[in-house]
Amino acid sequence: MACVYIPVQNSEEEVRVALDQLPRDASDIVDILKAEQAPLDLWLIIAREYFKQGKIEQFRLILEEGSSPDIDEYYADVRYERIAILNALGAYYSYLGKIEAKQKEKEEYFIKATQYYNRASRIDMHEPSTWVGKGQLLLAKGDVEQAFAAFKIVLDGDRDNVPALLGQACVHFNRGRYSDSLELYKRALQVFPQCPAAVRLGIGLCRYKLGQFEKAKQAFERVLQLDNDNSDALVALAIMDLQSKNDDSIKLGMEKMKKAFDIYPYCAMSLNYLADHFFFTGQHKVVQDLTETALVVTNHGPTKSHAYYNLARSYHDMGDFEKAGMYYMQSVKENTAPREFVLPYYGLGQVQLKLGDLKSALTNFEKILEVHPDNCDTLKALGHIYIQLGQVEKAHEFLRKATKVDSHDPQAFLDLGELLIPTDTGAALDAFKTARNLLKNGNTKKKDKADRSNKGRHEDEVEEVPVELLNNIGVLHFERGEFELAEQAFRDALGDGIWLKFLDDKAEIMSADKKVEDTGADVPDKDSSKKSSVGEELSSDPEAQVDSLRTAQFPIDATASVHLYKDLSLFDRLEEQGIVVELPFNKVSTLFNLARLLEQLHHVETASIFYRLILYKYPDYPDAYLRLAAIAKARSNVTISTELLSDALKVDEKCQDALLMLGDLELKNDDWVKAKETFRAAKDMSDGDDSYASLCLGNWNYFAAIRSEKRAPKLEATHLEKAKELYSKVLLRHTGNLYAANGTGIVLAEKGQFDISKELFTQVQEAASGSVFVQMPDVWINLAHVHFAQGNFSLAVKMYQNCLRKFYYNTDSQVLLYLARTHYEAEQWQDCRKTLLRAIHLAPANYTLRFDIGAALQKFSSSTLQKEKRTTDELLSTIAELRNAVRVFSLMAASSNLHVHGFDEKKIETHVEYCKHLLEAAKVHYDAAERVDLDNKRRQEANEIARVAQVKQREAEERARADVIANLLLVCYIILFLFDLLINYLRQREKRKHDEEQKLMREQDLLLQRKKEQWSTPATKRKDRSQNEDEERHGEKKKKGGKRRKREKKAQYESDEAEPMEDQDEIYSVSHHQDDDKVDQTDGNPQDLFAAAGLEDSDAEEDTVPSNASRRRQAWSSDED
Amino acid sequence: MKLTSPETIPDAHEDSIWTASWIPATEDSPPLLLTGSLDETVRLWDPESKNCILKNTGHSLGVVSVAAHPSGRIAASASIDSFIRVFDVVTNNTIATLEAPPSEIWQLKFNPEGKILAAAGGGSASIKLWDTAKWQPITTLSIPRPEGSKPGDKSSNKKFVLSVAWSADGRHIACGSMDGTISVFDVARAKFLHHLEGHCMPVRTLVYSSAPLDSRILFSGSDDGHVHVYDAEGKTMIAAMSGHASWVLSVDASPDGAAIVSGSSDKTVRLWDLKMRAATQIFSNHTDMVWTVAFGPPGRTDVRSCSLASVSDDKSISLYQYS
């Protein structure tokens, strides 16, 4: 038992004070010490004992008494002990100041401490312990430089002063000069090997900071050996354990951390780390408690910052972004060294991003980037922000960098891909593919790992490649026309489900060749193995399943089959049969895309089933209605198409696409007024901003201009103007709008500005080639029309033919008609004839074509008859063709009794009559030709006779020279005279015939002249329109088709082929002429049968109009209506 | 079930070949192929040697249909001028020239017994029937007008008859129209039975199944790119098959009833497995639209196999073996 003995004054006795039994009231002791005038070192010992026992009050009391002025006076010459007491008090207050959290008290303590040290200094300026104390005080106050000076003074005096060494080491440590610090600690240890564990702690920390983790660890462990309860060492070791990425050591670290916490619950550092841990385990409440304590107990900036960060993170994780933001902010504020602790910036950036404060988030992320220029996440985050800010270039740059920095981060590639979609689909596709492969590889790795650790359970652990990514890949392939790859991607995205049954139905078929050769037995095998691997069981027998799929679809009543595309009962039937009809929401888009792809590949039926499946599960999906409507429309099922569209409108009143398509259908049904209203409504819906709606209205106006039954030039002009205005408006807003450019070109062509329109069309044509979705046959046709109008027939022919082949599989009779007209104008009769026959074969019900071929044959014949020279063969074929023409016309005339096809019987009859007449004329010509041949023969004979006669004459001359000359001459004269007579006779006969023909032609010319005059008044010209409605309606249909097409750019719903827009303005001129005849007839202007010879007109015209081009233009303008 | 890769006779005509029909074998002759073209000729081919045996002229305006009498001795051809020429296959002597004004003539088909020749009557919205003994018209099967329509109504135009088909038992006849409807008639009673709906675009080709048990099954091809399968008596649709990119111009059923073949303006010939209900083989050997596909009579050596011919706008004939 340790005791001190206080000597009793003026005696030999001593008061024995047992140190472990110090009285509770220290004043007793003080009284004794004072009374006995005990040496000051005893005071100090007792005070220290009190301190050790935690009796701070008593400790202070004794020391304060021991440093009172009385004592100073009394013990004036006892210098060292006085200094020691003062220093003890100074150290005590330094400590108080150091641990005090409140600023005010803290300063007061420091002031007191300073006072005591100053008093000590006054006693002896050179006492090293005072300087050490001062140094500690300065350190506690954070005044590192002055502390350095204080310690230096001591060390200059005694370089082995342990406390000074320690102090200076601490200074160096705080200055970040860890190796210097380490040296000093080492020296202290050498000088004083028994020094407390804390010294080794310093060494450990220095080593740690210097990155010598193993040695640091050894040092800390040594500390713990010496002092089992040293929480700092525990914390340090724990941190080191935690930082190792090893699960076991993390566990150990946590244990240590907990132990440290148990020993000393107010160590902010350990609190932070514990909070860290509990954050990861998700115990947010604990995190908050811990961090709050940590915040209370520390003033150390970085530690506080860390604590705030933990708190913020916790709130962030719980989704309380406001609070999280606030605490991140605090953390950032407390953070004195952003270089070393960037995490709160990241958190703050994230929260700000979440809260939509892009600008602030941007600055925060950029700060991080300054510290870590290659941080992938930050680069991605910045990329995102720039995307949202619309700065694509910058976003691109950052994402590119992110992918470069970490070429194994699928997310970066994903983002990059998405960014690239609008600008560079190829690069986007590459990025997506990389992302997919990375994810896949990641999965297989995980799978392998899972397989190794836990066989069979890997399914749950594997992270699926996101549906969206596969979907995007599919769409990009689709857009690039790589349909098989697209289908594969969509299939991958969709995974297993009912759709596979429908698809595989198809797929089996594709590989059916093989299967037929296989035995039937292994087909179900394959199926069942496939199914079990996906783990879904729909029904035990796949064959039965396929059958039930089929029986659910068919048979259906043939009458009801018209409504097939609206029929959802198929799925009801499937469910009745116990087949699960499921469609997860995240796969709807992909299924839709797959259906679009199938449509593109002409697997329309499967596509329609998928659309209907979407509607069965999600009846609010208007796009599916639209597609079904488009399919129905492509199959000419107008009623169902309309119904589907109104269904779509029921689901979504504001579905502009549906409205526009409806307008289109209304046009198809010839419901002009309604269509216009619908288009208007659609346009209003978008505040007039929608290009497609504007284009539709533009087209409407254009059609209205060229269609009006009674041609009113004024009305026509206003419609055209309006159309042009609408087109230009769209073009202004979207300079790349092909359809608007095409429309503008048409209007310009209508006005005769062919060169400009040609330029426009050529550009549009170039732009339109190269995309799967943009199919613009219109522009080809328009271009051809312009070539035609400019008299460039061979180019026009090529254009029409290319267009037919490229867009219509050669099936469009209307384009064939254009082609025929071009041949007609180019006077290529055989080509014209064949083209028309093809057109008739393709469109047998189009009687206009029959009329046209009749007319072409007629024209061909009459032109042959007018030729100066013709062979008998030509005449023979002319006669054959005329017979054909008569046959065609008379068939038409007869059938018009049965049904109306837009032609006047009388008119056809006049054609028949005229052709018959021509036929007779041709026969006459033929006879004449034959006779001419005969004459020629005779003439040759006559010549022969003459020659013989001459020869004879000469002989005679020779024989009976001069004397018989007169007689011979006479004979000669007689012969010649007779000969002349004969020739004259023949000539006259011929001439008479010729005159007859001439007369006929003159009469025709006259008629034509008359008719031409009638033509030149356009108002009368188009009366026949109504009669020609068949053709016209055909044309209208197409235009609408073309219009709808325009939409596609915007919404890629429409897959049907675009159709020519300009057909109408260019009614086949042959029929045109005929129409004019009709006008004459129907106007009650009866003419003789020659009037029907409308075809002659164009010839007459050709003769009178000097320039070919101007004639074309005239033709054009008359055709324009 | 499959088709061998085709052997092609290039430039078999001077212009587009629009129609083809197999002439059954006779005692003196193997099965022959008859083709008709825009070049206004009808030609007869020996599928073995790929030689043209006969070249008939006499039609003006393109030849739209040829049909062979089951006897193999007589054939008929029709052209756009709406004349039907009936001729002796061997001698090419004209047996009869038929017309039915004002009706035009499109597709021709002899009935299975060979006693009646049926012709699709186009705008007359009817089928014309001739007796093949005297070459006299028997009757006209008219599609009834929809109720409420007037004689002058334009809608009648939509019933324009393009195609015609006899059922294997010869009791029924079906015709396809411009508006996509198919009309079924009872021949003996000359009575209209019902419509089969489903197409809304011209039905250019119709064929009944020739398999013994499937005589009710009717296949149709339409401009909508679909091939439909109907139970023509039960008035139900059994399947709708899509895949052609453009009009389906011709459909023919295989003699064994397991497959059909279709030709389209998308230039392809497709073999459809009826069990799978989808195309198992697709041929792209033609370079222009395929107007007619026709299964020939069963082979002499192997009854399960037979020939198939396809003719196209590319002026060529392709011959395949089906087995």
Structure explained in plain terms:
Chain B: It holds the Pfam family WD40. Chain B: WD repeats lie at residues 10-55, 56-97, 154-195, 196-240, 241-282. The complex is a heterodimer of chains A (1121) and B (323). Chain A has 1121 residues and is an all-alpha fold. Helices cover 76% and strands 1% of the residues of chain A. Chain A has a domain at 467-513 and 540-652: Serine Threonine Protein Phosphatase 5, Tetratricopeptide repeat (Alpha Horseshoe), CATH 1.25.40. Chain A has a two-stranded antiparallel ribbon. Mean pLDDT of chain A is 73; it is low at 455-462, 507-540 and 1015-1121. Chain B has a single domain, classed as Methylamine Dehydrogenase, Chain H (7 Propeller). Residues 152-156 of chain B have low confidence and may be disordered. Classes of the chains: A mainly alpha (1121), B mainly beta (323). At the A-B interface, helix 28, helix 29, strand 3, helix 34 and helix 46 of A face helix 1, strand 20, strand 21 and strand 25 of B. Strand 3 (556-557) of chain A pairs antiparallel with strand 21 (236-241) of chain B, so a sheet runs across the interface.
Supply database-style keywords.
heterodimer, A: 1121 residues, mainly alpha, Serine Threonine Protein Phosphatase 5, Tetratricopeptide repeat, two-stranded antiparallel sheet, 76% helix, 1% strand, rod-shaped, disordered C terminus, B: 323 residues, mainly beta, Methylamine Dehydrogenase, Chain H, four-stranded antiparallel beta sheet, 1 helix, 50% strand, globular
